Amino acid sequence: MHSPALFLITVVLVAILGVTGCGRRDDGVTELVITGSTTLLPIAEISSEGFEALNPDVNVLVSGVGSSAGIEAVAQGTADIGTSSRDLKEEEEGLGLIDTPVAYDGIAVIVNPANPVTALSMEQLKAIFAGEITNWEEVGGPDMRIHLVNRDEASGTREAFKKIVIGKESNFDLRAAVLPGTGQVRDVVSRTDGAVGYISLGFVESREAARDVKALKVDNIEATPVTIADETYPIRRTLHFFTKGAPSGVAKEYIDYVLSPEVQEGAVTEAGFIPITVGNEAAQ
Amino acid sequence: MSDTQQSANKMRLVSRSTLAKETALATLFFLCAFVAVLGVALIFLFVGWRAWPVFSEVGIGNFALGRVWDASNEVYGILPLIVGSVIVTLGALALGTPLAVGTAVFLSEIASPRVRSVVRPAVELLAGIPSVVYGFFGIVVLRPIVAEFSGGTGFGAFTAWVILGIMIVPTIAALSEDALRSVPDGIREASYAMGATTWQTIYKVLLPAAKIGIIDATILGMGRAIGETMAVLMVVGNAPVFPEGIFSPMPTLTAQIALNMGYASGTHRVALFGMAAILFMFSMALVAAVRWVSRLGGE
């Protein structure tokens, strides 16, 4: 009961993978440890299953503990690949980590479907999350208090949202509820009339969740794979795999597999992310 | 035969191998107790050692009395977290203590043996439910209900009070029931013989007689409430500010440590150990309070 939620999730995931995936550990099986961003979990998990099917002698252990913890783990050598939904911070740049971008992601601003507001400008968003606007009336909605739902500081999504929307000079409103996971943010917003939060575009439409959330247009641009790939939707980011030094051995084989069309057009697209190849074409 | 004579006889009468076994067992039990003491000492030293730089890096005034906790901007004032922990704990006690003492009175004085055989295991089962399950119940069932009638997100002190209030019932109820049962039957009989009703006997005679035990139980329940992490983390909302009301997101020391420890480094990590040290002091104060109250009772 003294473990944090994220640690618990890790343990559970490792346990599940341990039960279903291995049992051959002593027979020269190679273990590939992948840890980090919860945003990247769907990509890492689905591709690890495919990779294990192709390479029966490799056991891939995937866990989601937040981007910062993933970067720390790969830097310290406790993981082979650290997944991150944000760029390296200044103090992390000297660690000798090599970046392989694997997908693009848009961060959707979500509200309850009962909320009549459909679009916000970047300035309005900034003012809302900085706590300067506290009622939906001020942005053309009904007279209803705005309930901010934020992520914890280990979250790469929070990091990216802060960098893109809030900027360096301003700050998040500290009175916001802080939740330790994308799923919780989605759930709370789906059940609370005045709530607003932000999650990865891939999690807006959910087959499992009982209730819907509504993604807002930002600067009048809807968040879709197309608007994210062509860089018109403003809140977008790159998802990374970090390795200590250039990827080699099994880690390299795995990363190549993730970058192959099979995963890029399969797991990456299905999880609601934008294949890195689409972005590459858009950039050229 | 007196005790000393008995043990002296035993020493003389047993064989050498039995004596060796006895000595080995005594050593074994001493080692068991020693592990507990060693554990506390090591944790104390480790937390103190890792928390020590807080004095130089943050300053004890800025740390313990600082009104802003904003780790991403390297501001580490934990007063809102301390206040949050105190609010959550006191509210849970206010809800849980009457419930638990009422349960104890019912079990010890009113319930028939058959009813007792159902109620007591149920209360004991409450203690066995993992705290993450309480938290899960809180976030899935209780939070939407609270959100509905408060018009907020449902995170905050109130939700934590209800969850924690239930969680501390078994601790307080079991110890209070022990205290009530240890009141000699002669006192009950004397009260009834004077013509007192059951209720008069309970609140004029039994509760005052078991007072010390019930206060001890409450203090231990307080320790459980202030240390609880997982369930609280899931329902308080974790906004590191002084709460605006009982339905606003707020922090506690334990939840903040759990949320941050996966990634904190440098001064941030030192600050977390500083918070752990403060929780340690809370526990020591509570243990001291229990001992002090018990001694009052012994006089």
Radius of gyration of chain A: 19 Å
- How many DSSP-defined strands of chain A? 12
CATH superfamily of the largest domain in chain B: MetI-like
* Low-confidence parts of chain B: none
Number of helices, where a helix is a run of at least 4 consecutive DSSP H or I residues of chain A: 10
Major β-sheet annotation of chain B:
2 strands, antiparallel
Based on the structure given, which CATH architecture of the largest domain in chain A is correct?
Answer: 3-Layer(aba) Sandwich
CATH class of the largest domain in chain B: Mainly Alpha
Question: How many distinct domains of chain A?
Answer: 2
Specify the helix fraction band of chain B. over 70%
Helical stretch tally of chain B: 15
CATH topology assignment of the largest domain in chain A: D-Maltodextrin-Binding Protein, domain 2
Measured by DSSP, the beta-strand proportion of chain B falls in under 5%
CATH superfamily of the largest domain in chain A: Periplasmic binding protein-like II
Cα separation of the termini of chain A:
51 Å
What does this structure look like?
The complex is a heterodimer of chains A (284) and B (299). Chain A has helices spanning 5-21, 41-54, 67-76, 122-129, 156-166, 182-191, 225-229, 249-259, 261-270, 276-283; strands at residues 30-36, 58-64, 81-84, 97-111, 119-120, 147-151, 177-179, 195-200, 214-215, 217-218, 236-244, 274-275. Chain A is α/β, with parallel strands linked by helices and 284 residues long. Chain A starts with a helix and ends with a helix. Chain B has two domains: 2-51; 61-298, Orthogonal Bundle (MetI-like fold), CATH 1.10.3720.10. Chain B has a two-stranded antiparallel sheet. At the A-B interface, helix 1, helix 3, strand 6, strand 7 and helix 6 of A face strand 1, helix 7, helix 13 and helix 14 of B.
